[in-house]
Amino acid sequence: MTMHRPPRLATWILKRFGSTIIKDALVGDLFEAYQTRPSPFWYWREVGAAIGVGTCRDVWHHLPVALGAIVTGLFVAALPVWLLQTTSAASLSNVPLPVWILTLAAWLVMFGSALLSGWLVSLLFRAHRAAAVLSLAAAILVVNGIIISAADLGPLALGSVLLLDVLAAVGGGSLTGVRERTVRG
After folding, report:
1. Per-domain residue ranges for the chain?
2. What is the dihedral of CA 56, 57, 62, 63, to 10 degrees?
3. What's the average model confidence in pLDDT over 162-169?
4. What is the pLDDT of residue 185?
5. Distances in Å between the alpha carbon of 86 and those of 11, 90, 102, 144?
6. CB of 44 closer than 8 Å to CB of 35
7. Alpha-carbon span 65 to 82, nearest angstrom
8. ∠ at Cα 42 (41, 48), nearest 5°?
9. Cβ within 8 Å of residue 181, ≥6 positions away
10. Which segment of 32-41, 72-81, 144-153 scores lowest on mean pLDDT?
11. pLDDT (mean) for 133-142
12. CB 168 within 8 A of CB 117
């Protein structure tokens, strides 16, 4: 019998953001099911469903963790943006820079702060990383959707900015290593 290898990225994402309780068993069960049904689309759909259901359950059972992650992450993400907005334009006017460089710097601060907040939340709430990081990503999506929608961006640009900011937070949360459980004999 030929062994079919499931998509590596999907398995990696499942190991990073899967439910902490059943992650190892779930990876094995999905691998076995993939052998009889070698469809990458099916595997991705199952991984997405497993992460979504597991995260909702973890958030529900550990609501203080999710709220702490949201408060911590939004503070860390908002602080650099707030500092950039409150910096006096007179102090920056001495440096003649093209508008595109100023715009790029603003976007880098925004995405960098989301990446940093995801990473920090992942470190602080390591025991419930998936619930913490994905709660933060949902909060960033909602808050930025409200704040950035006031800007005069088109729907495609607004959606792209929101998606990239959420991906930056989730990407930052995935930067910390996953500890493998070892059995000592």
Report:
1. 8-59, 62-173
2. 40
3. 88
4. 46
5. 43, 11, 15, 18
6. no
7. 25
8. 90
9. 24
10. 144-153
11. 90
12. no
The three-state DSSP-derived secondary structure of the chain is CCCCCCCHHHHHHHHHHCCCCCHHHHHHHHHHHHHHCCCHHHHHHHHHHHHHHHHHHHHHHCHHHHHHHHHHHHHHHHHHHHHHHHCCHHHHCCCCCCHHHHHHHHHHHHHHHHHHHHHHHHHHCHHHHHHHHHHHHHHHHHHHHHHHCCCCCCHHHHHHHHHHHHHHHHHHHCCCCCCCCCCCC
Bigger pLDDT: 37 or 168? 168
pLDDT confidence of residue 115: 92
| CA 72/CA 36 separation, integer angstroms | 44
Closest CA to 114 of 64, 184, 174: 174
pTM comes to 0.74
Q: What is the longest distance spanned by two Cα atoms in the chain?
A: 71
* Tokens representing residue 25 in the block: 């068993």
At residue 181, φ and ψ (nearest 5 deg) are -80, 130
Q: Which two tokens stand for residue 178?
A: 């996953």
Q: Is the dihedral of CA 97, 102, 103, 104 positive or negative?
A: positive
Sign, CA torsion 75/76/78/82: positive
Residue 147: how many CB atoms within 10 A of its CB? Answer: 11
d(CA 137, CA 141): 6
